[in-house]
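Worked example 2:
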Amino acid sequence: MSEHRPGVNPGFLTKHTLSLLRVNESNAKAITVELDGLPCVDRVWLNRTKGTLKIAYDGSHLNIDEMIAIVEKHGAAIKENWWSRTKLSWQRQTDQNIKDNAKHEAHCCNKVPPH
């Protein structure tokens, strides 16, 4: 079992990969430093030559759109092709499911669930 950073609940850990455009040496470092400094981010990997960003974070506190905003703030962008848009919609749905599950209060056996 691997160690996680403080504040990261492994039950809500999500890992996403984004394909990026306009990544260079200076903005790659800035993106990595800012994302890695966010609370509830477990790990950040940015491959400048391939233009890929892999990020692991606690989905009950953060979402993929917050990550994209940081990427765009530093002059990079998400690839605008069919596959990237499809993956991004899955990632948004995953993040929403994690947030919803984190808020859910389970009901006890043999009780009617609240309406």
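Helices lie at 25-36, 64-73, 82-103. The chain has a mean pLDDT of 90.
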